[in-house]
Amino acid sequence: MSPRHSFFNRCLMAIPLLLLLPLLTFWLMHLMPGNYFDQLRLNPQISRATVEQYEKLYHLNEPVLIQYVYWLKQLARLDFGYSFAYKQPVLDILVSRLGNTVLLTGFSFAWAWILAVFLGLLAARYPRSIFNRLLDGIAYAALSMPNFFLCLILLHLAAAWGGLPLGGMRSVDYEALSASGKVLDILSHLAIPSFVLGIGIFSFLFRLMRAQAQEVYERDFVLYLRAWRIPGYKILFKHVARNAINPLITLLGMQLPALVSGAALVEIFTGWPGLGQVMLQAVRAQDLFLVMGNMVMVSALLVLGNFLSDILLVIVDPRIRSGKGGAS
Amino acid sequence: MKRGFLFGVAILFLGGLTLATAFADRVAPYDPNLENRAQALHPPTPLHFWDEKGEFHKRPFVYATQMGYEANMLRTYSQVLKKKCFLRRGRHAPLGVQAPGKLYILGTDSRGRDIFSRILYGARTSLSIGILGAFVSVAFGFLVGALAGYFGGWIDHLLMRVAEFFIMMPALYLLLALRGALPPTLDSFQVYLLIVLILSAIGWGGVARVIRGMVLSLRERDFVLAARVLGRRTPEILFRHILPHTYGYLAVIVSISIPGYIFGESFLSVLGLGIQEPAISWGNLLTESLSYSVVRFHPWVLFPGLFIFLTAFCLNIIGDALKASQSPEDKLKENV
User: Fold this and answer.
1) Among A144, A150, A212, A216, which would you mutate to test the B interface (most chain B Cβ atoms within 10 Å of its Cβ)?
2) Rounded CA separation B190/B270 (Å)
3) Which among A124, B74, B213, B214 counts the fewest CB atoms within 10 Å?
4) In the beta sheet, which residues pair with residue B68?
5) Cβ contact, residue pair B312, A265, below 8 Å
6) Which residues does B147 contact at the CB level (< 8 Å), separation at least 6?
7) What is the per-residue pLDDT for B138?
8) Which CATH number fits domain B115-334: 1.10.3720.10, 3.30.2130.30, 1.10.10.10, 3.90.960.10?
9) How far apart are CA B141 and CA A60, in angstroms?
10) pLDDT in tens, A26-62
């Protein structure tokens, strides 16, 4: 499969995701008994007519498919609608949250990925060392630990010992801090969520990288390089790394949905103001357009991430660029 | 050798847990819903062999406890040294202690219910969600993957696009939306089934993809050709000759995907979106650990989480051991 063909395929794949997922969500939200305006209906000071007027305004009295079409039309104008609970355009809320989610996910993924590649290579080089065993144990433990539980424990520890903030993203005095103080403040808030999110990714990628590197290590070219007295670190970090790294990049795209879900979970438990946290609030408040907008944002994020990993793979692996062999 | 030892321990733990869960009404020292309000948030009772004078007793015993308050109105339980309550068969359970004493192996929760008993009963929900979810998703993914891989062509194309669609779904968002969509009047059993359904709807895609890859390469082998030449029919070739080669992978994937289902259930339940109170699950046992002040002074409310962790740990070990036991040929394919 040529890279252009595969790229085109990916684009096609994105369309049903971007269209069907919102439809599914729409339908689910419709299944929910009542809507946001039921709260208004309970208020004796608001007349029935007002509520009905509102419902008409947002087409909530129509069948699901019609609502969906209305919503799509809106979306085509990049209008995500209006959040009932926040009394604000959905786009404004989401844009401010999107950055936070991307920051959390990106930061966690970055440290986990880099560390996994580096330590995975070393562990493959020294499989019998204590260092490898230790990392193995950590990876096992992290894979077996439910994320939310790890979050809880770390937050409780932070509460007992102090040192790290207990959730949120900025301190109260954030605006008064200097530029470097602001960065430090956000980093300290980022510590727990990104540790929880990253450690799971790290364990998974570390084990994969180690297995890959071990396999590459047994190939003949390593022996050849050794015979040429190429220094060990060069063999490891240049030649073995280049050959072993492919699945870690392909998996970047495949892992993304799990990553985004994981981020939502961590956000909910640590109060990180991201998309996942908004989603929970919006679902609970039946804030229809906010839920829909959120779903679109997340799907767009996934599609984008997949593209990036495809492009990255082409950059890293020359075999794929020429369209011959390699991982498809 | 060390791996083998760990594997044995894992099997023993899971086997023991499963048995204890299955016979929870015989094993649990107390009724899980029995509220002993006078002994709320009681710490785990230690078993003693030596009494306060240093005398050894063949039969372990616990001290009866008495509630008191500290200066800041914190409840404390002090041991009444005169009251030794020896271990004996409980009324329902093999373990119990003599009258005034209570055997709270892992302490009690804020309504005075025995946490250990609740964990055993909760395991019924949590373990079965894990096992059921894993089996449903693996069975479905297996079927789809096998069909796609064997028939190829447009069937393969269509099925794989659908699978990819499900793989790409942001599971948690969907879970939240879906759970939000359900009327709160659903009873626990319906919620239980729904959780299984939602979780496995998300999980089958990955399995289908791997199985398809394996079948794709298996169907080109000579033994398949031989079967075809002998005039065997397609279903027979598929199910008798090709698919048994994938069972090793299936065993691995079942054991390593069970934790994910248990996590999913407990996550939803902790947030109050999953299994609700009168029913017990590991997730809703942990709702109490959300409160900082409870955990600070009563850390034993975290024990259900330890059970989740240990179960997942054992399953991961078993999964790895199963993976390692496969032939190298099969192992290579798995990396696809």
Assistant:
1) A144
2) 18
3) B74
4) B76
5) no
6) B155, B159
7) 92
8) 1.10.3720.10
9) 37
10) 777 777 666 777 777 777 777 777 777 777 777 777 7
Residues 107-166 of A with CB under 8 A from B: 140-141, 143-149, 152-153, 155-156, 159-160
3-class secondary-structure state, position B63: strand
pLDDT of B23 strictly over 80 = yes
Amino acid at B124: R
Tell me which residue in A145, A148, A155 faces B267 most closely, judged by beta carbons.
A148
Strand partners, B97: B87
CB contact under 8 A, A144 and B316: yes
> Could you tell me the end-to-end alpha-carbon distance of chain A, in angstroms, rounded to an integer?
7
Total count of residues recorded for chain B: 336
Among residues B283, B261, B259, which one has the least CA distance to residue B272? B283
Residue B179: its chain A contacts at CB < 8 A? 283
**B104-131: pLDDT as tens digits:** 888 888 888 888 889 999 999 899 999 9
**DSSP states along B267-299:** HHHHTTSSS-TTS--HHHHGGGGG-HHHHHH-G
What's the predicted TM-score (pTM) here? 0.85
AA identity, residue B171? A
Could you give the CA distance from residue A55 to residue A286 in angstroms, rounded to a whole number?
14
Interface test with chain A among B7, B9, B176, by most A beta carbons within 10 Å: B176
What is the ipTM metric for this complex?
A: 0.83
Check whether domain A3-32+80-321 has CATH 1.10.3720.10, yes or no: yes
Instruction: Give Cα separations from A63 to A56, A67, A293 (angstroms).
Output: 12, 6, 19
CA distance A154 to chain B (A): 11
Q: Which residue of B has its CA nearest to A261?
A: B172
Where along chain A do its domains lie?
3-32+80-321
Per the DSSP assignment, residues forming a β-bridge with B66 are B78
Residue ranges with strand state E in chain B: 48-50, 56-69, 75-88, 96-97
Interface check for B162 against chain A (CB to CB < 8 A): the answer is no
In chain B, CATH 1.10.3720.10 sits at: 115-334
The pLDDT of residue A300: 81
Cβ <8 Å between A148 and B164? no
Q: In this structure, are residues A321 and A313 in contact, taking their beta carbons and an 8 Å threshold?
A: no
Q: Which helix (H) or strand (E) holds A189?
A: helix A179-217
Put simply, the answer to whether A294 touches B316 (Cβ < 8 Å) is no
- Nearest beta carbon to residue B169 from set A29, A160, A257: A257
**pLDDT tens digits, B249-292:** 888 889 888 998 899 888 888 888 778 778 888 988 888 888 88
Q: What is the pLDDT of residues B51-99, one digit of tens each?
A: 777 777 777 777 777 777 777 777 777 777 667 777 777 666 777 777 7
Residue among A32, A144, A257 whose CB faces B168 most closely? A257
Closest among A93, A67, A96, A97 to A80, alpha carbons compared: A93
Identify which of B174, B180, B316 has the shortest CB distance to residue A140.
B316
Give the number of C-alpha atoms closer than 13 A to the C-alpha of residue B208, restricted to the C-beta side.
27
